[in-house]
Amino acid sequence: QHTKHGCDHIFFIGFLGAGKSTLARNVGTMFKRRFIDTDRLVVRRCGKSVTEIFETEGEDRFRELETSALRSLQSERSLLVSCGGGIVETPVNIELMHEMGTCVYLEGDFEDSIRQIRRSDTRPDFRSPEHAARLFEHRRPLYRQAADLTLDIRNKSFEDVSYLCA
Ligand code: S3P
User: What 3-state DSSP class applies to 16?
Assistant: First the structure.
C-alpha cells in the first residue's frame, strides 16, 4: 500500500481496555513488525505518566501531545501502532492515520473494557462507570467511521484475534 508518507502503518483503535497493546505486541511479533503505543510515546516525550498529564495539564494538553506523537510516526516505516482510546476525539488524528496507513477497530464489549479499566491505573474520570459508559457510546460511531476494517473481538481470546488479523 502506498500512502502519502509511504509509511504503511497499521493502527489499532478502540476503547480503553480492548487489548490493543497486547494484540499489537502479539501481531507485531507474528508479522515481524515493530509495535509501539501512542501513550508510551507521549509519556516518553513528556516525562510524566498519562494520569499525571491529565491531572496536572488537562486533557487538551494530552490530546496535543498525542497528535504530535502520531505525527512523529510519519518518518517511520511499517509499524503496528496501538492508539490511546481517545485518539478519535481529535479529528486531525483520523486524517493523519489514514495518510500513514490502515486503521483497524477492535470492537469489544463495554463490560470487558470496564473489567480491564478496574484493573489498571488510569485517568481519574474513567473510574466512574457511568462516565465511561457515556464515552463508550459517544466513541463507537467515531471508531467505526475511522476504521478501514473492524474486528469483532467479543468473546474471543487473544489467539482467536491474532488469527483474525492474519
Ligand atoms: C484514553 C485512553 C488511554 C490513554 C488516556 C486517555 C481515553 O489509552 O490514552 O488515558 O481517552 O480513552 P488506552 O486506550 O491505550 O488505555
Answer: coil
